[in-house]
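the two lines:
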Amino acid sequence: MTDDDQFGRRLATLLRDELSDVHSAPNLTDRLRGRARRRQLLVGACAVAVVAITGAVGLVAVPGADRADPELVDVAHVRTQVTDALARSTDYVVLARTANGAPYRVDKWTDAATRRVRTDWYGDGKLSVSVVVTNEADGGQRGLQIDYLNRWYAHWQRTPAEMEHTFPDFFEDLPEANPESISQALADGTLEIVGKETIDGHETLRLRLETEIEAGPTATTPTTMELWVDADSYLPHRSTITTTHEFGALTRTTTYTWSERTPENLKVFDLTPPPGFPGGKRR
Amino acid sequence: MRVDPTFDAFVERESTALLRFAYLLTNDRGHAEDLLQVALLRTARRWAAARDRPGAYVRKILLNLSRDRVRWLMRRVRERPLAPTHDEVAAVGPHDHAVAERHLVVAALARLPERQRQVVVLRYFEDLSVEQTSELLDMPPGTVKSHTSRALARLRELLDDNDNDTTHLARAHHD
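prediction for all of em together
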């Protein structure tokens, strides 16, 4: 046993002794039933209130009325709903469109169910490179890259052992605009509910997440993620990720499209090199 | 609320252990009791999914809830912390070394960043493996290890500071 483990176990013994007189209420299940009944009454009352407000909306605008919604102020509830929604991302083909300043943009499609990712890079408004990567169950990867500017393509493959010896990606700690990163930020960060907003015709709930990402053994980078989630499904509709560095702040805006996994929608991963492009295999 | 009788049995059996876990996450007895009730209600509503590993299920909810700023949003008066403050500990007489030592550990744990506190509580108080902790926190095992290492180093520092201030206190971490 290491020194750390011995120290940790000693601390645990002290903590257990300290909490030995902490006991839950003997009638806890009764309290839970009472609380559940009160919640049902509250939800019923809210439903009536929503109908009433909807009926009156043409007559009176109430500043801050959104904030009165109990569902809005319950951060824990929203966190759980968004986390649960993101966990269902395997049910969808997700398109994340990130603008890095026009005319440059990146489109990334993810099919979590088959671990396939397609990324398209646009420069000067034109598609320049497409890559489809399939993450194999054994930890390896295979992919196809098409370079439209230089007119060539390549199939490649990496074994699990080769993946372990891949050069470190210095940007790997930066949060990506994808369900996994958002889930991580939800788990790690401080969540604040900003309010309701209509974005591109979508009723959304605007959330703000403050977190820090590791930027080396001792340094962290403050990160703010703003998230607009669909008011019904809680799936992300838009995100902005702002990382603060010594040279200033960098913000990326991503818009998400969640499509059913129909054969038509999955065709996006069937990438084929254009006729006449030279290509081959490379490791 | 219609509940499977096995849920009642689970609450009866585990609620004290879960309350202690919630208390270490929040350092607030009243807040811990609130979080536990919310976590158990959610578990009851999804008992079919939770019943195979209800302890882990509730702990995962508690970990998520403890990170929220619910304590302000619940609009309730916050109770006085169970653990005494540093000054109060320093005033404890030499015959209360063991008590003071325990209070110091609770206070030091409360000063850790959220993730480090969670890792220490899961790894040592709950006696979970790195892999089990990794699963509950949704973080890679390597990150669990690094958080554990940093947390223990920080706890050593905090307890060393207290040792220097109150030399009569037992040196638990030097055992």
